[in-house]
Every structure is written in C-alpha cells, then in structure tokens.
Amino acid sequence: MTEPNPSLYEMLLQNFDGELDLHRVSEQDQHTLSVLDNLQRILNCRAGALSHLPDYGLPDMGTVLQGLPATAHTLMKTMTDTLLKYEPRLAELAIELLPQVLPGHLECALDVQLKGGRRVSFGSTVGPEGKVLVRHLTRQNYFSTPGMDHPRGGR
C-alpha cells in the first residue's frame, strides 16, 4: 500500500487551498487536507459542467435550495454518491443534516473513513447562493473526546 500523499496538483503548487504551505503541515494532516480540498472542489462544481464527466459535481443548487427542507435528503444522497465516486481516498461516507444556524444555509456533518482506516469528520455549509464550504471539524474544536472525530462536541 502506498503512503497517503497530497494530490499531484497540491504537490506541484506546494500548497493547499487557501495558500497553506505544504511543508507547514504534517504528512498525516497533508492527506486529510488534500481530501478536504478535493471534496470542496467536487461539491462546488455543477453537474454537467464537465462534458466528459456529466455527473461530476452537484445539481443546480438554486432549485435544491428553493425546495428546502424537502430537498435536503435528496441533496445529501446526491452528495454521498458523488463524493464516493469521485474521491477515491474515501472508504465510507455518512452525511448527517445538522440544525440550521443561519437562515438559507444548509449545515451537514460528513463522517468519513479514509482508505487505510483513519476516520475524520468534516462540516459543510451550503450557502444561499449554492457555494459549499467544507471544513475540518477537529480543527474547530468540535470534539469532546480525543480520538473521536464526531461533530457532537459543539462549538
């Protein structure tokens, strides 16, 4: 089995999204941040934008967001299927709808098991304009138990 590495794109640029230098991050965190960056890229692409991969990305978010809360579970299913298909480092993914904090925003927790066994939790916020922000929940002090990457710890 090969060691987990950042993507070729990140290695060429020598940084992660947000201009975080590659060399300032531990190898284990490099892998996690690389997955996070790719999840965000996938979720911010719209299905049909790439002619050779018509199902890469999410559907038109305008119609999804207008139909909330009825469309939330369909969106979570679409997110799960798309991320498992286009992020090859994911072994398992469970998405949980979180309580709405801001009007017009959809909050989700992504419980991920990476290939190789490591578990990590990400949070995602879908804004009213359809932009998706993905964040690493352990970095935001969401957890109450060390080693348990679960978003129940609160903020």
UniProtKB/TrEMBL annotation:
Stretches assigned to the IraD/Gp25-like domain: 33-114
Short name of one Pfam family: GPW_gp25
Cross-referenced SUPFAM superfamilies: gpW/gp25-like
Superkingdom, taxonomy of origin: Bacteria
Family annotation (Gene3D superfamilies): 3.10.450.40
Record protein name field: Type VI secretion system baseplate subunit TssE
